[in-house]
Each structure stands twice: as structure tokens, then as C-alpha cells.
Amino acid sequence: MSRIHTTEEKQLIDSLGRVHNNLRISVTDRCNIRCFYCMPAENIEFQPREELLTYEEIERFVTVAATLGVSKLRLTGGEPLLRKDLSKLIKRLAAIPGIRDLALTTNGLLLAEQAAALKSAGLDRVNISLDTLNEQTFEKISRRPGLERVLEGIFAAQQADFKKIRLNAIAIRNLTEAEVIPLAQFARIHALELRFIEFMPLDAEGHWEPEDILTGATIRSLLENELCPLEPIERDDPSQPATDYRFTDGLGTIGFINPVSEPFCGDCNRLRLTAEGQIRNCLFSDTEWDAKSILRNTRSDHELAQLLRECVAAKLPAHGIGQPDFKKPTLAMYQIGG
Q1: CATH number at residue 120
Q2: What's this model's pTM, rounded to 2 decimal places?
Q3: By the 8 A CB rule, do 168 and 103 touch?
Q4: Which of 116, 182, 250, 276 is the most buried (most CB within 10 A)?
Q5: Element of type H or E holding 62
């Protein structure tokens, strides 16, 4: 099996000049809750264990991707903390030359038990889903109990000395308006970053409608009316999906990810690797490039690098939500990787 050298290949640049250095890796499609914006409630057929990439295969894929300029990784699921010994994978990935940022997105239910080991293994940042501080609303969204365990996970991450802890809240019209101010106050009190994310058409049951979107602009108005004015923060990284603001009273910041009302596709630098080894160049694409067949047939890393280039070259200008020819993806969020 041949190896490519870090200086041998060019960056992953698509036809619009977007440089791709950000890779999201799903390690499992399984989850311990059933949020309606991500998964069906029951009767889910998860991928068999043997179909998921091994840690060795993920490490090899990332090693190749790093030679092509990928430097930022995010582990997702499903719920990634359900994957056994995840800290061992993190330690492997953190040691790969060229990887300078390693993050995790989790629902937080298992974080209290694992936060210290994840930090010790080399995890830099953690994003925790928190749509509400109300147990009844939590169960309506997740269709399972567990809010207190999520809060325990948040505080355990702080105790483990993670410097970047971000809360992600999905914004859904006629459901989460009442959560906006309590979540903002919680984040401000506990010195946490908070980002509101518009509800996207990635629910497994296909119930999403444009009318369900609680836009970032609406949330911003709620915050300014109830708390204080917000002032924009200049982006350090133009490819980041969030538009960030600071509260003018000096107590914290807030971010808005508005993929539907204010698409940011023009600066997108992200690729995705599904748990079963398929590369995707857009969250909303139905086209995949099969990395697993290369990884499991011991074909060369050059071939894997070429597959990555082909995937990036085929990337469309935008996801197309709201356009007449837009089609919802056939896969739900838990199958793609959050």
C-alpha cells in the first residue's frame, strides 16, 4: 500500500475556488434519543457494526485528507459517544500531521462520564445540543427524557477544562420561541457560547415545511427586545457557518446559523464522511463517493486522494433550499452525520 507525501498533492479546491479544509466524520448512526428533526421515533434500521468504518480506516482516511490540506475535524453521529472507546480514536486523529483542530458534536447524555478522557486524548472543542431548558419541551423534541444528564455533561466539560464549549439550539417555529431567552441567559451566566440553528429539511419522517423555520432574524429581535442590543463580531474565518454577535452589556456572545434564510454556501469549506465510509460534498447532496471500498480493498492512498478530488470537483454552488428544483435528501441527519 503506497503512501503519499504531505507536500505532494494540491489543496482540495472546487470549481468555484472554495478551499476545503474541514471534514466532518460520523462514527455511528446510532443515538440514545430520537429528536424529530433528525430521526424517526421508532423502527430504525441502523447500519450493521461491520459496515461502519473501523478506527484504523478512519485514521487512514484522515491521514490522506490531511495531505490535501484538511486540518479541521469534527466527530459526529448519531451520537458519537455511543461508539466504544471514542477517546482512542481521538488520540489517533490528534496525532496526525496537519490536524490542528479536533472537535466533537454530542447530545451530552454521556458526556459527564467521558469528558475528562476526551480532553486528555486531545479533543480541542465540544458542541452540545441543547434546544431547551424545559424537561417537557426536551421530551417533546427528543422523545426521550434526559435534560438533567445533558446539563451534567455541560458542567463536566467545563470541569475538564475545555476552553471552547458551544451550545447548539435548533430553532423551530411554534415550538422553541419560549426557549430563546432562557437559553441565552443560561449561556451568559455560565460563560458558554450559544448558537441558534434554523430547522432544516433533514428530518427522517419528512414533515419539514418552510413555515417551520424560526429564522435567525426573528431570534435576534427577541433577544434585543428582551435583553439588550447586539453588535456584530467580525469573522476570523469567512467559512464559518455562524454569524456572531456580542451583547452590548458585555455579557457574552450569540451566534446564528441560518442555512435556509441566509445561505452561506459561497464560503463552504466542508466535506463529510459517513459512518459507513461514504464521502459527501454537501449536507443536502444525494451523491456519495465510496471511500470504504478503497479502504477495505487495500487500494492505494493515491486512489483515495483522487476520490476526494473528484468529490470536491463535483460540488454544486449551493444546496438549493427554496429553489423550484430542490429535492429533500433521501437520508436523514442521523444517517449523514450532524
Answers
A1: 3.20.20.70
A2: 0.93
A3: no
A4: 276
A5: helix 55-67
